[in-house]
Design goal:
By secondary structure, this protein is α+β, with helices and mostly antiparallel strands. The protein has six helices and four strands. A four-stranded mixed beta sheet has the order 1-4-2-3. The longest helix is centred in the N-terminal third of the chain and has 22 residues. The radius of gyration is 21 Å and the shape is elongated.
Amino acid sequence: MKKLILSVLLLNLLAACSSNPPKEEVAEPATTSAATTEAPAADAQGATATDAQAAADAQAAADAQAALMEKNSVYFPFDVDAVQDADRETIMNHAEYLASHPDAKVRVEGNADERGSSEYNLGLGQRRAKNTKRALVLGGASDSQIETVSYGEEKPRCSEHNEACWAQNRRADINYSAQ
């Protein structure tokens, strides 16, 4: 019962914190004026300022996606399946990306450390994956974009038998499928 209440509270906290602060537009005019001053030189080379801006936007999007992919794991304490506050930013970043890219698909893979039976760890991994999915959906992602699977203890990141290693194995991985 405590786990259920804690999960509901954490999900409500995630939903309450999902609003985005207003973005500053200070950098925008500087980019526009730089593009305007470079336009004659770009036109002389056969390219337009619009093309240069589109290329810059595409590069910025690629950089943002690369940064997003660097942090794609959510970690859990021993025998816990509720998403932790420490991973809220990771969840929200992925949820915002999914919301702004409706064609993107992810598979949330739940994992557990080696302690416990195989059946228990598969169930725990599935609960971790489902709770991560629920947090992504609360953050703005579509339910249809997310698939869940549990690997239990079958895909460890670390194979040593100590707490530091087990902590790396108690996770849910957010993996984007190839487009």
